[in-house]
Amino acid sequence: MPTPPLSAASLPSEDLPARLLVKVCGMREAASLNAVADLEPDFLGFIFSPASPRYVGDVLTPDLVHGLPDRVQRVGVFVNESTAQVQAIAFRFGLDFVQLHGQETPAQCAELRATGLRVIKAFGVGEAFDFDALGPYVPHCDYFLFDAQGPAPGGNGRVFDWRVLEKYPWPVPYLLAGGLRPEHAAVVRNLRLPGLAGIDLNSGLEIAPGVKDPARVAAFFDGMGRTKAA
Ligand SMILES: O=C(O)c1ccccc1N[C@@H]1O[C@H](COP(=O)(O)O)[C@@H](O)[C@H]1O
Protein backbone atom coordinates (compact mmCIF):
# COMPACT_ATOMS: atom_id res chain seq x y z
CA MET A 1 0.00 0.00 0.00
CA PRO A 2 1.52 3.39 -0.96
CA THR A 3 2.39 5.71 1.91
CA PRO A 4 1.84 9.47 1.96
CA PRO A 5 4.41 11.13 -0.29
CA LEU A 6 5.75 13.39 2.40
CA SER A 7 5.12 14.50 5.93
CA ALA A 8 3.36 17.75 6.68
CA ALA A 9 6.33 18.82 8.76
CA SER A 10 8.50 18.90 5.65
CA LEU A 11 6.29 21.45 3.95
CA PRO A 12 6.82 25.21 4.07
CA SER A 13 4.86 27.20 6.59
CA GLU A 14 1.99 29.05 4.90
CA ASP A 15 -1.30 30.21 6.34
CA LEU A 16 -3.53 27.20 6.96
CA PRO A 17 -7.01 27.50 5.47
CA ALA A 18 -9.50 27.96 8.34
CA ARG A 19 -11.17 24.64 7.54
CA LEU A 20 -10.17 22.42 4.66
CA LEU A 21 -13.07 21.80 2.31
CA VAL A 22 -13.81 18.15 1.60
CA LYS A 23 -15.29 16.74 -1.58
CA VAL A 24 -16.28 13.09 -1.82
CA CYS A 25 -16.51 12.06 -5.44
CA GLY A 26 -17.77 9.15 -7.55
CA MET A 27 -21.10 8.76 -5.77
CA ARG A 28 -24.01 7.06 -7.47
CA GLU A 29 -26.14 4.58 -5.51
CA ALA A 30 -28.62 5.78 -2.89
CA ALA A 31 -27.41 3.91 0.20
CA SER A 32 -23.80 5.07 0.21
CA LEU A 33 -24.76 8.51 -1.16
CA ASN A 34 -27.08 9.16 1.78
CA ALA A 35 -24.70 7.65 4.33
CA VAL A 36 -21.83 9.84 3.11
CA ALA A 37 -24.10 12.92 2.90
CA ASP A 38 -24.89 12.39 6.61
CA LEU A 39 -21.18 12.92 7.35
CA GLU A 40 -21.57 16.48 5.96
CA PRO A 41 -18.90 16.79 3.27
CA ASP A 42 -18.77 20.21 1.60
CA PHE A 43 -19.11 18.76 -1.92
CA LEU A 44 -20.41 15.52 -3.38
CA GLY A 45 -19.26 14.55 -6.87
CA PHE A 46 -20.93 12.53 -9.63
CA ILE A 47 -19.05 11.19 -12.65
CA PHE A 48 -20.80 11.86 -15.97
CA SER A 49 -18.01 10.43 -18.13
CA PRO A 50 -19.29 7.16 -19.71
CA ALA A 51 -15.77 5.68 -19.86
CA SER A 52 -15.38 5.78 -16.06
CA PRO A 53 -16.12 2.75 -13.85
CA ARG A 54 -17.88 5.31 -11.64
CA TYR A 55 -20.15 6.57 -14.43
CA VAL A 56 -23.52 7.38 -12.90
CA GLY A 57 -25.46 5.68 -15.74
CA ASP A 58 -29.05 5.02 -14.73
CA VAL A 59 -28.13 4.32 -11.10
CA LEU A 60 -28.05 7.96 -10.08
CA THR A 61 -31.41 9.62 -10.62
CA PRO A 62 -31.96 13.39 -10.49
CA ASP A 63 -34.25 13.07 -7.46
CA LEU A 64 -31.38 11.59 -5.42
CA VAL A 65 -29.27 14.66 -6.13
CA HIS A 66 -32.10 17.14 -5.68
CA GLY A 67 -32.90 15.49 -2.33
CA LEU A 68 -29.47 16.20 -0.83
CA PRO A 69 -29.21 18.72 2.00
CA ASP A 70 -28.80 22.32 0.78
CA ARG A 71 -25.45 22.68 2.55
CA VAL A 72 -23.84 20.15 0.16
CA GLN A 73 -22.50 21.52 -3.13
CA ARG A 74 -23.27 19.15 -6.02
CA VAL A 75 -20.44 18.64 -8.51
CA GLY A 76 -20.71 16.99 -11.92
CA VAL A 77 -17.46 15.57 -13.33
CA PHE A 78 -17.04 15.68 -17.11
CA VAL A 79 -14.34 14.77 -19.63
CA ASN A 80 -14.28 16.67 -22.94
CA GLU A 81 -18.06 17.06 -23.04
CA SER A 82 -19.79 19.80 -25.07
CA THR A 83 -20.98 22.90 -23.25
CA ALA A 84 -24.58 22.21 -24.29
CA GLN A 85 -24.49 18.66 -22.89
CA VAL A 86 -22.84 19.74 -19.63
CA GLN A 87 -25.43 22.47 -19.25
CA ALA A 88 -28.33 20.07 -19.92
CA ILE A 89 -27.06 17.54 -17.35
CA ALA A 90 -26.34 20.29 -14.83
CA PHE A 91 -29.89 21.59 -15.14
CA ARG A 92 -31.45 18.11 -14.88
CA PHE A 93 -29.47 17.14 -11.77
CA GLY A 94 -29.37 20.58 -10.15
CA LEU A 95 -25.58 20.80 -10.16
CA ASP A 96 -23.78 23.73 -8.54
CA PHE A 97 -20.30 23.01 -9.93
CA VAL A 98 -18.80 21.31 -12.94
CA GLN A 99 -15.38 19.64 -12.65
CA LEU A 100 -13.61 19.37 -16.01
CA HIS A 101 -11.01 16.59 -16.41
CA GLY A 102 -10.18 16.71 -20.11
CA GLN A 103 -8.66 19.24 -22.50
CA GLU A 104 -11.37 21.83 -21.88
CA THR A 105 -10.22 25.32 -22.87
CA PRO A 106 -10.38 28.57 -20.89
CA ALA A 107 -13.12 29.66 -23.35
CA GLN A 108 -15.27 26.64 -22.42
CA CYS A 109 -14.75 27.36 -18.72
CA ALA A 110 -15.91 30.93 -19.38
CA GLU A 111 -18.97 29.72 -21.36
CA LEU A 112 -20.02 27.38 -18.56
CA ARG A 113 -19.52 30.03 -15.95
CA ALA A 114 -21.68 32.42 -17.96
CA THR A 115 -24.55 29.92 -17.53
CA GLY A 116 -24.31 30.36 -13.75
CA LEU A 117 -22.34 27.19 -13.04
CA ARG A 118 -19.17 27.30 -10.99
CA VAL A 119 -16.11 25.71 -12.55
CA ILE A 120 -13.39 23.42 -11.17
CA LYS A 121 -10.69 22.76 -13.79
CA ALA A 122 -8.60 19.65 -13.11
CA PHE A 123 -4.97 19.16 -14.11
CA GLY A 124 -2.72 16.11 -13.87
CA VAL A 125 0.48 17.10 -12.11
CA GLY A 126 3.86 15.62 -12.90
CA GLU A 127 7.35 16.48 -11.64
CA ALA A 128 7.84 19.42 -14.01
CA PHE A 129 4.37 20.90 -13.93
CA ASP A 130 4.17 24.27 -15.71
CA PHE A 131 2.04 26.53 -13.53
CA ASP A 132 2.43 29.38 -16.06
CA ALA A 133 0.22 27.38 -18.44
CA LEU A 134 -2.70 27.89 -16.03
CA GLY A 135 -2.69 31.67 -16.52
CA PRO A 136 -5.42 31.77 -19.21
CA TYR A 137 -7.73 29.72 -16.94
CA VAL A 138 -7.34 31.97 -13.91
CA PRO A 139 -10.13 34.47 -14.71
CA HIS A 140 -12.61 31.69 -15.57
CA CYS A 141 -12.32 29.14 -12.75
CA ASP A 142 -13.59 29.06 -9.18
CA TYR A 143 -11.17 26.30 -8.18
CA PHE A 144 -8.40 24.31 -9.76
CA LEU A 145 -7.99 20.64 -8.86
CA PHE A 146 -4.59 18.97 -8.89
CA ASP A 147 -4.51 15.22 -9.43
CA ALA A 148 -1.82 12.66 -10.27
CA GLN A 149 -1.18 11.83 -13.90
CA GLY A 150 -2.31 8.38 -15.01
CA PRO A 151 -3.76 6.32 -17.80
CA ALA A 152 -7.34 7.53 -17.16
CA PRO A 153 -8.44 11.19 -16.99
CA GLY A 154 -9.13 10.73 -13.27
CA GLY A 155 -9.83 8.12 -10.61
CA ASN A 156 -6.42 6.48 -11.02
CA GLY A 157 -5.85 6.08 -7.28
CA ARG A 158 -2.36 7.53 -7.60
CA VAL A 159 -0.74 9.99 -5.19
CA PHE A 160 1.62 12.62 -6.63
CA ASP A 161 4.41 14.47 -4.86
CA TRP A 162 2.56 17.36 -3.29
CA ARG A 163 5.78 19.36 -2.90
CA VAL A 164 5.28 20.48 -6.52
CA LEU A 165 2.49 22.69 -5.14
CA GLU A 166 4.90 24.68 -2.97
CA LYS A 167 5.44 26.85 -6.04
CA TYR A 168 1.74 27.44 -6.77
CA PRO A 169 1.58 31.09 -7.85
CA TRP A 170 -2.10 31.91 -8.61
CA PRO A 171 -4.97 33.41 -6.57
CA VAL A 172 -7.44 30.66 -7.59
CA PRO A 173 -7.85 28.23 -4.65
CA TYR A 174 -7.45 24.52 -5.40
CA LEU A 175 -8.48 21.06 -4.25
CA LEU A 176 -5.84 18.36 -3.79
CA ALA A 177 -6.80 14.99 -5.31
CA GLY A 178 -5.29 11.66 -6.25
CA GLY A 179 -5.40 8.39 -4.35
CA LEU A 180 -6.19 9.83 -0.91
CA ARG A 181 -6.91 7.14 1.69
CA PRO A 182 -7.62 7.21 5.46
CA GLU A 183 -3.91 6.78 6.22
CA HIS A 184 -3.29 10.19 4.60
CA ALA A 185 -5.74 12.00 6.88
CA ALA A 186 -3.29 12.94 9.62
CA VAL A 187 -0.86 14.42 7.08
CA VAL A 188 -3.62 16.27 5.24
CA ARG A 189 -4.82 17.72 8.53
CA ASN A 190 -1.63 19.77 8.92
CA LEU A 191 -0.86 20.34 5.28
CA ARG A 192 0.48 23.80 4.56
CA LEU A 193 0.54 24.69 0.90
CA PRO A 194 -0.14 28.03 -0.80
CA GLY A 195 -3.65 28.15 -2.28
CA LEU A 196 -4.81 24.85 -0.77
CA ALA A 197 -8.56 25.09 -0.11
CA GLY A 198 -9.55 21.46 0.26
CA ILE A 199 -9.22 17.82 -0.72
CA ASP A 200 -11.05 15.41 -2.97
CA LEU A 201 -11.65 11.81 -1.88
CA ASN A 202 -12.55 9.13 -4.36
CA SER A 203 -11.29 5.62 -5.15
CA GLY A 204 -9.35 5.29 -1.88
CA LEU A 205 -12.58 5.08 0.11
CA GLU A 206 -14.53 2.58 -1.96
CA ILE A 207 -15.98 -0.91 -1.52
CA ALA A 208 -16.33 -1.08 -5.33
CA PRO A 209 -16.14 1.63 -8.04
CA GLY A 210 -18.95 4.08 -7.34
CA VAL A 211 -19.77 2.52 -3.94
CA LYS A 212 -18.14 4.44 -1.10
CA ASP A 213 -17.52 2.79 2.25
CA PRO A 214 -19.06 5.24 4.74
CA ALA A 215 -16.85 3.79 7.49
CA ARG A 216 -13.70 4.66 5.51
CA VAL A 217 -15.03 8.14 4.78
CA ALA A 218 -15.80 8.60 8.49
CA ALA A 219 -12.29 7.31 9.36
CA PHE A 220 -10.77 9.93 7.04
CA PHE A 221 -12.88 12.70 8.56
CA ASP A 222 -11.91 11.58 12.08
CA GLY A 223 -8.25 11.37 11.11
CA MET A 224 -8.23 14.94 9.86
CA GLY A 225 -10.04 16.13 12.98
CA ARG A 226 -13.10 17.17 11.03
CA THR A 227 -16.25 17.72 13.00
CA LYS A 228 -19.69 18.51 11.62
CA ALA A 229 -20.28 22.20 10.88
CA ALA A 230 -21.97 24.04 13.74
O1 LIG B 1 -13.19 8.70 -10.67
C1 LIG B 1 -13.24 8.59 -11.89
O2 LIG B 1 -13.50 7.49 -12.42
C2 LIG B 1 -12.97 9.77 -12.77
C3 LIG B 1 -13.16 9.62 -14.12
C4 LIG B 1 -12.95 10.68 -14.98
C5 LIG B 1 -12.54 11.91 -14.48
C6 LIG B 1 -12.36 12.07 -13.11
C7 LIG B 1 -12.56 11.02 -12.24
N1 LIG B 1 -12.36 11.16 -10.87
C8 LIG B 1 -11.64 12.23 -10.26
O3 LIG B 1 -10.26 11.88 -10.19
C9 LIG B 1 -9.65 12.48 -9.07
C10 LIG B 1 -8.75 11.52 -8.35
O4 LIG B 1 -9.41 10.35 -7.98
P1 LIG B 1 -8.67 9.19 -7.13
O5 LIG B 1 -8.66 9.64 -5.70
O6 LIG B 1 -7.30 9.04 -7.65
O7 LIG B 1 -9.52 7.99 -7.32
C11 LIG B 1 -10.78 13.02 -8.22
O8 LIG B 1 -10.78 14.42 -8.38
C12 LIG B 1 -12.04 12.49 -8.82
O9 LIG B 1 -13.04 13.45 -8.78
UniProtKB/TrEMBL annotation:
GO BP term, example: L-tryptophan biosynthetic process
The family database entries (Gene3D superfamilies) matched by this protein are listed as:
Aldolase class I
Documented EC number(s): 5.3.1.24
Please give the superkingdom of this protein's source. Bacteria
The residues covered by the N-(5'phosphoribosyl) anthranilate isomerase (PRAI) domain are: 22-222
Q: Which InterPro entries match?
A: Aldolase_TIM, PRAI_dom, RibuloseP-bd_barrel, TrpF_fam
Q: Which UniProt keywords apply?
A: Amino-acid biosynthesis, Aromatic amino acid biosynthesis, Isomerase, Tryptophan biosynthesis
Q: Identify the stretch annotated as signal peptide in this record.
A: none
Q: Which reaction does it catalyse?
A: N-(5-phospho-beta-D-ribosyl)anthranilate = 1-(2-carboxyphenylamino)-1-deoxy-D-ribulose 5-phosphate
GO MF annotations for this entry?
phosphoribosylanthranilate isomerase activity
Give the protein's recorded name: N-(5'-phosphoribosyl)anthranilate isomerase
Species source reads: Hymenobacter coccineus
